[in-house]
Amino acid sequence: MSTVVAIAYRDRSTAVDVMETLAKLQKRGEIRLEDAVIAERKADGSIDVDQGINALKRGTTHGLIWGGIIGTTFLVPIAGLALGAAAGAIEGAIRDYGLDDDFVEKTSAALAPGGAALFLLVAKAKPEPVIAAIRPYGGVLIESSLSPEAEAMLRVKLEDI
Questions:
Q1: How many CB atoms are closer than 10 A to CB 139?
Q2: Is residue 36 a contact partner of residue 19, using CB atoms and an 8 Å limit?
Q3: pTM confidence score
Q4: Sign of the dihedral through C-alpha 95, 37, 52, 42
Q5: What is the pLDDT of residues 53-95, one digit of tens each?
Q6: Alpha-carbon distance 93 to 49, whole Å?
Q7: How far apart are CA 87 and CA 126, in angstroms?
Q8: Closest of 119, 114, 115 to residue 51, by C-alpha
Q9: Considering only CA atoms, which of 52, 156, 33 is closest in space to residue 104?
Q10: What are the DSSP E strand ranges found in 10-144?
Q11: Which DSSP symbol is given to 110?
């Protein structure tokens, strides 16, 4: 089961830096993200949402893999890849993967103007290296689906710098 975590930062730049750090951790296998969104509250109160992981790309990748397998099986690998990518892109666009858009919008409305939040849907993670990597950025845990004990520990680790 995936875990939702939302962390508020003083500005968009910090949230982007944390997202880049998490991307590096994901390449090393320390964390696996299913979805990531950065939301910024503008000075006029509007919310700007930037999708970190796109469902369309995810669907296309899955389609390429399956298309390649099926195409190779029937000795038409190029056609299989093309058809698989197209089918995967359509599936990714139709299915609503990841974080709920309404949840992101409503939670982001509580940010201070100029503030940003990083919303993560975490499939799995090694807590120690992930927390150690993002701790220098600070942040305030604003929402999670973690157990109360795990949430309290994360809150202390993020905010106690």
A1: 23
A2: yes
A3: 0.69
A4: positive
A5: 544 344 445 455 555 555 555 555 555 545 555 455 444 443 4
A6: 18
A7: 34
A8: 119
A9: 52
A10: 31-41, 47-51, 116-125, 140-144
A11: T
